[in-house]
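Input structure tokens:
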């Protein structure tokens, strides 16, 4: 079963069983996914662990019974699988900053957790990519190894699976003032004009000596740059941050996977959105602590600004 279809099935099962007790172990067995994968995928989808999402959905649906019926609070608690009334009241207060009785009495407006919108997920290869979040990333400094995106001798793309391990094995240890030893950062300098959709389509597959990739690490300052490496300052900018999750090792982020991800960002999202590139580079980030041999989380930071509106 395709990953997206499986996630849709899991979400549908959760919605149909909100009044039942569910555990991570039960869901893992039912859908033949490890607890690790369930936890990571739903954290990426919702920003919260799976069991917290289920609890928030239970509480959100219970608000309707609280507001629209005369059911006793203890009966609502049992209806949604809580062990007792006090457990429900504590969970309700933690979620909504008000007790169930007071919310009912004062007819408060309650902000609920809605069902996951799977329309915000796109399958890419053997992984998934999510609609971006907008962030302001403060000024940062990067030290790393700069090389062409294409091998100048063979005119073939350089595979990240060789550049990444090579960087950690041969260069990473000599960089000083690093902020996090488990974070892999790359800075790709794009061709001028890439913000234009047609230009992108014409040139994305062409080997070009002006495409460069710097693989490195975030550092606190640009001092003591090792020989053979470069240092650069990334200014404070607004970024659209795309998250890709793949059920494979980080070393399997080969060029064809990255090409599919890039085509989604530039040919679909950027073209259809209200944004355009503000600078001709992208940042890519992998936290190795959140990855393992059968799972990868990969973030793409695209600097954007609003498109100009012609009146």
């Amino acid at each position: 079963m395709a990953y997206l279809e499986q996630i849709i099935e899991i979400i549908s099962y959760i919605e149909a069983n909100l009044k039942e007790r569910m555990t991570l172990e039960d869901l893992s067995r039912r859908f033949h996914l490890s607890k690790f994968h369930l936890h990571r995928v739903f954290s990426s989808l919702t920003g919260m662990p799976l069991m917290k999402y289920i609890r928030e959905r239970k509480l959100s649906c219970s608000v309707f019974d609280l507001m629209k019926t005369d059911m006793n609070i203890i009966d609502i608690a049992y209806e949604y699988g809580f062990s007792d009334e006090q457990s429900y009241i504590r969970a309700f207060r933690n979620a909504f900053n008000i007790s169930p009785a007071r919310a009912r009495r004062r007819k408060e407006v309650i902000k609920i957790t809605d069902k996951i919108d799977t329309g915000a997920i796109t399958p890419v290869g053997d992984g998934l990519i999510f609609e971006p979040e907008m962030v302001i990333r403060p000024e940062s400094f990067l030290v790393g190894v700069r090389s062409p995106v294409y091998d100048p001798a063979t005119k073939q793309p350089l595979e990240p699976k060789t550049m990444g391990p090579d960087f950690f094995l041969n260069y990473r240890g000599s960089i000083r003032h690093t902020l996090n030893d488990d974070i892999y950062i790359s800075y790709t300098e794009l061709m001028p004009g890439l913000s234009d959709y047609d230009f992108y389509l014409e040139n994305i597959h062409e080997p070009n000596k002006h495409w460069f990739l710097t693989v490195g690490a975030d550092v606190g300052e640009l001092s003591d740059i090792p020989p053979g490496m470069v240092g650069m300052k990334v200014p404070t900018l607004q970024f659209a941050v795309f998250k890709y999750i793949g059920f494979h090792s980080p070393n399997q982020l080969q060029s064809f996977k990255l090409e599919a991800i890039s085509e989604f960002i530039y040919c679909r999202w950027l073209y259809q959105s209200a944004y355009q590139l503000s600078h001709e580079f992208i940042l890519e980030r992998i936290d190795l602590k959140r990855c393992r041999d059968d799972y990868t989380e990969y973030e793409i930071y695209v600097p954007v600004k609003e498109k100009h509106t012609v009146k």
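Residues 194-205 have pLDDT under 50 and may be disordered. The first strand starts at residue 121 and ends at 124.
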